[in-house]
Amino acid sequence: MEFFCYHRDRPGSVALRDELLEEHWSYMDGYAKEMIARGPTFAADDDDETPTGSVHILDLPDSAAARAFAFDEPNYQAGVYRDVLVRRWRNLLGRTMWDFPGGRTSDNKYLVLGLGSGQAADLTVPPGRDELIAYGPLLADDGTTWLGTAVLLRAPDQDAARAILTPDRYADIEVHDYDFGGRPDSWPTVPQPSAPPAAPRPSAPRP
């Protein structure tokens, strides 16, 4: 089962978050095989990149395991976070963030969180698949009842990111600046293409 987890930071908790960074990473190391996507969110247009939350999308056995993951996390235990959203989710892309065609260094990435109202919407992958990092519906614990949509994507700006969802089908749509998370060495090394062979030098004339 796939789950979407979003911890929202408590105001004024940046120093504590920084202090616990290694503990946070060590905790997440234990979920490396289950992880689909992860990373911090930031305040919009904030040059200091003040964190506002943390996204984790994982494949876990059941709802109890998902809640244990969310509430045992060191930052949550220490009071870094104000609250947490944990929902069933469905991986419509069928891949992880490490498979994102844009790679780790891509700019202008966003979390778009649509809180549903009424009939389900946006249940198919939209055009521009290569700009999507993660895409899928938020679901109740029964795995059927639609509660919204959670998307990680690359887009020119927040307005373009918001437009990925059908606006009149949601009670609210949140857009947060986002970046890939994890240890700096957590991404696989991409082999660099070999240089083409040098053209042979012309033979010097024999004396």
Describe the structure.
There is one protein chain. This protein has 207 residues and is an alpha+beta fold. Helix content is 17%, strand content 33%. An eight-stranded antiparallel β-barrel has the order 1-3-2-8-5-7-6-4.
- Total helix count? 5
| Proportion of residues in β-strands | 25-35%
The secondary-structure element order is EHHEEHHEEEEHE
Side by side, the strands of the main sheet go 1-3-2-8-5-7-6-4
Radius of gyration: 21 Å
Compute the number of strand runs: 8
> CA-to-CA gap between the ends?
77 Å
Most strands sheet: 8 strands, antiparallel, barrel
Q: For the residues shown, what is the average pLDDT?
A: 89
Sequence stretches where pLDDT stays below 50 over 5 or more residues: 190-207
Structural class: alpha+beta
Helical content (DSSP H or I, runs of 4+):
10-25%
Write down the overall geometry.
globular
Kindly list the characteristics that best describe this protein.
5 helices, single chain, 207 residues, 8-stranded antiparallel β-barrel, alpha+beta, 17% helix
Write the layout of secondary structure elements.
Elements: E1 2-9, H1 14-19, H2 21-29, E2 35-42, E3 51-59, H3 63-72, H4 74-78, E4 81-89, E5 109-116, E6 132-139, E7 146-154, H5 158-162, E8 170-178
Antiparallel strand pairs: 1-3, 1-4, 2-3, 2-8, 4-6, 5-7, 5-8, 6-7
Gist of the model:
The chain has 207 residues and is an alpha+beta fold.
